C-alpha cells in the first residue's frame, strides 16, 4: 500500500478579471508578461533525447543556490515563449527556483532539431530531460504542464508510478485535456471556432513546412480534407505515430487512465468554464481515491487564463509556487 504526503493547499482568493470564458482565454493569451531574461540570462540547452532528435530547453537560474528546479511543458502549438510560461518562470526565479522551459519537438522554431513532431501523449522527451536534470541537480525537481503539456505531465507521472519519486518531488497540470476525445469534440463546437481555426492553421502550416523539409516522410495530400482537429489527428497524428486512427490515439494517450497510478504530489488546476476542456471529464474517481491528487477547480478562468481582477494579476503563478513550497515544507518536516 502506497502513501502520499498529505497536503492542504490554502487557496489564494481568486476574483477573475473576466467571467466570460472566451475573454479570459483570449486575454490570457495576449496579456503582457514579465521579461525575465532581462534579469536572469537564458541558457539554450539542446537535449539529445533519441538518435537524430534534439529538444531545445531554455534554462535560467536565480541568484544564489536554487531551492529547486521547475521544468515547464507548453500546450498545443505553443512554445517556451508562451505567456503562461514566461510569467511562471519570472515568479519561480524570483522565489529562488531554477527553471527549464521545454520546446516540444518542432515547436519554438526547432524543426531542424528533429524530423518528427510531438503528440499529446509523447512522454519520452520530457522523461529524458527530467532524468538529465536529476543527474545534474541535488535539489527537488518539479514538473508543470499546461494544456497538452499537462496531459504529458500527468501521463508521465502515471507511467512511472512509484519510480517517479526517485525523479520528481511533485507535478502540476493546468487546463489539462485529460480525456482527449472529449476535448477534441469540444474544440469542434461552433462556439470554439476561433480556437479550432487557429490550431488548424498552425498544424497545417507545420505539415507544409515538413513536406518541404522531408518529402519522403510527409505528404500534403490530406490537407484539403481537414476541417477539424479530429480530422488532423486522424489523417496525420495517428498515422505518423502508428496509432492508426484518431479514436485509438485519443484512447491510448489520454492521461485520465493514468491518474490512479500517480505516486507523487500532483496539483491539477482547472476552470469550470474552460471552453476547450469540459469540466465533466474531471468527474473521475481517481480524484477521490488517489491521495496524491489535489484537484483545484475555480468557477471562472477560461483556458489558461486565470487573470485576477486585482494584483497580483497572474493568480496561477502564486498558486503553483505555494504548492511547491508546501511540498518542500512537508518533506522537511518528515526528516
Secondary structure blueprint with pairings:
Elements: H1 21-30, E1 43-50, E2 53-60, E3 68-73, H2 83-94, E4 97-102, H3 124-136, E5 141-146, H4 148-160, E6 170-174, H5 180-187, H6 193-213, H7 229-240, H8 246-253, E7 266-271, H9 286-289, E8 293-298, H10 315-334
Parallel strand pairs: 3-4, 3-5, 5-6, 6-7, 7-8
Antiparallel strand pairs: 1-2, 2-4
Helix pairs in contact: 2-10, 7-8
Number of strands: 8
Label the structural class. Answer: alpha/beta
Count of folded domains: 2
Radius of gyration: 19 Å
Termini gap = 21 Å
Rounded mean pLDDT score: 95
- The arrangement of helices and strands along the chain is HEEEHEHEHEHHHHEHEH
Query: Sheet with the most strands?
Result: 8 strands, mixed
- Any low-confidence stretches, pLDDT <50, length ≥5? none
Report the total helices. 10
Strand order of the main beta sheet, please?
1-2-4-3-5-6-7-8
Beta-strand percent range: 15-25%
Which overall shape is indicated by the principal axes computed on the Cα atoms? globular
Q: Give the name of the CATH superfamily of the largest domain.
A: Alpha/Beta hydrolase fold, catalytic domain
Amino acid at each position: 500500500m502506497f502513501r502520499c504526503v498529505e497536503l492542504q493547499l490554502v487557496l489564494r482568493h481568486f476574483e477573475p478579471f473576466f467571467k466570460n470564458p472566451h475573454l479570459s482565454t483570449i486575454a490570457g493569451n495576449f496579456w503582457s508578461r514579465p521579461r525575465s531574461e532581462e534579469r536572469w540570462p537564458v541558457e539554450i540547452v539542446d537535449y539529445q533525447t533519441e538518435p537524430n532528435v534534439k529538444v531545445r530547453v531554455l534554462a535560467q537560474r536565480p541568484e544564489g543556490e536554487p531551492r529547486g528546479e521547475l521544468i515547464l511543458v507548453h500546450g498545443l502549438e505553443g512554445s517556451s515563449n508562451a505567456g503562461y510560461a514566461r510569467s511562471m518562470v519570472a515568479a519561480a526565479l524570483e522565489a529562488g527556483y531554477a527553471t527549464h522551459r521545454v520546446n516540444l519537438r518542432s515547436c519554438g522554431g526547432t524543426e531542424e532539431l528533429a524530423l518528427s513532431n510531438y503528440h499529446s501523449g509523447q512522454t519520452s522527451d520530457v522523461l529524458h530531460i527530467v532524468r538529465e536534470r536529476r543527474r545534474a541537480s541535488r535539489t527537488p525537481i518539479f514538473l508543470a504542464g499546461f494544456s497538452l503539456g499537462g496531459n504529458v505531465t500527468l501521463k508521465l507521472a502515471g507511467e512511472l508510478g512509484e519510480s517517479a519519486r526517485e525523479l520528481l518531488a511533485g507535478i502540476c497540470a493546468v487546463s489539462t485535456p485529460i480525456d482527449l476525445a472529449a476535448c477534441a469534440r469540444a474544440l469542434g463546437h461552433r462556439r470554439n471556432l476561433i480556437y479550432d481555426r487557429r490550431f488548424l492553421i498552425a498544424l497545417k502550416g507545420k505539415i507544409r513546412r515538413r513536406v518541404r523539409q522531408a518529402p519522403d516522410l510527409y505528404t500534403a495530400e490530406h490537407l484539403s480534407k481537414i476541417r477539424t482537429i479530429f480530422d488532423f489527428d486522424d489523417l496525420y497524428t495517428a498515422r505518423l505515430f502508428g496509432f492508426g486512427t484518431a479514436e485509438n490515439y485519443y484512447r491510448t494517450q489520454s492521461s485520465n487512465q493514468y491518474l490512479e497510478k500517480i505516486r507523487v504530489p500532483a496539483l491539477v488546476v482547472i476552470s469550470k468554464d474552460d471552453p476547450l476542456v469540459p469540466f465533466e471529464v474531471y468527474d473521475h474517481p481517481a480524484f477521490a481515491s488517489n491521495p496524491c491528487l489535489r484537484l483545484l477547480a475555480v468557477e471562472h478562468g477560461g483556458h489558461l487564463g486565470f487573470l485576477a481582477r486585482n494584483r497580483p494579476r497572474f493568480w496561477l503563478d502564486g498558486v503553483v509556487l505555494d504548492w511547491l513550497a508546501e511540498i518542500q515544507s512537508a518533506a522537511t518536516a518528515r526528516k
